[in-house]
Specification:
With 195 residues, the chain is an alpha/beta fold. 28% of the residues lie in helices and 19% in strands. A 6-stranded parallel sheet has the order 3-2-1-4-5-6. The structure holds pyrazine-2-carboxylic acid and zinc ion (ZN).
Length: 195
């Protein structure tokens, strides 16, 4: 049997309405919830029971307060998604679907920038790729923030690892609209399915 999963990239408050608020973020969260709902149709039961048949994996940008990507340290971004702050938390409407072992943190090392969810690890030190293999996943839906950075890098690494990647275009937010469109075009050319 073919197993599907959903990877939700960085749907965190700093990217939604915080220091690095992205365009279309509120809408992307709403559309993601609709997509998850559509997967549960006919199943009945509680929200979290969907996870037994359709795993949902969450990526979190999770920086120390002095991360090298921050402007104060010579980086290109305002401070964002600092571990332990509200800005680094997953949007509350998605929390019913969050499981600790399916949550992967990246950018935790001060000196390293990590845009790809593939670099994230869960609290047991397991990587996203490792867990997708364990779940016997072949097709991965991707949504989240931001198209040009973490969404793109995550999709490309998933593709390289051999997964069929289906990017949900209504469920993503972006830093710049033109950059978003260009990234979608380039990802489509690479073999990522834009849906
Ligand atoms: C991201 C900028 C800085 C992202 C993360 O999630 O796309 N962008 N850190
Ligand atoms: Zn970051």
């Amino acid at each position: 049997m073919k197993n599907n999963a959903l990877v939700v990239v960085d749907m965190l408050y700093d990217f939604i309405d915080g220091s690095l608020a992205c365009q279309n973020a509120d809408n992307a969260v709403r559309e993601t919830l609709k997509f998850i709902d559509a997967q549960t149709k006919g199943q009945g039961g509680e929200d979290h029971e969907i996870l037994d048949t359709f795993p949902i994996l969450f990526i979190r940008d999770h920086h120390p307060a002095d991360h090298s990507s921050f402007a104060e340290q010579g980086g290109i971004w305002p401070p964002h998604c600092v571990a332990g702050t509200h800005g680094g938390e997953i949007h509350k409407d998605l929390l019913p679907y969050v499981r600790e072992e399916l949550t992967f943190d990246k950018g935790c090392d001060r000196t390293v920038e990590q845009y790809s969810g593939f670099d994230g690890v869960n609290n047991a030190g397991q990587s996203l790729g490792e867990i997708l293999e364990l779940l016997d996943t072949s097709e991965v839906y991707v949504c989240g923030i931001a198209t040009e950075y973490c969404v793109r890098n995550t999709c490309e690494d998933l593709l390289k690892a051999g997964f069929k990647v289906r990017l949900l275009k209504d469920c993503i937010a972006y830093v710049d609209h033109d950059g978003h469109l260009k990234a979608l075009e380039e990802m489509a050319a690479e073999g990522i399915s834009i849906e």
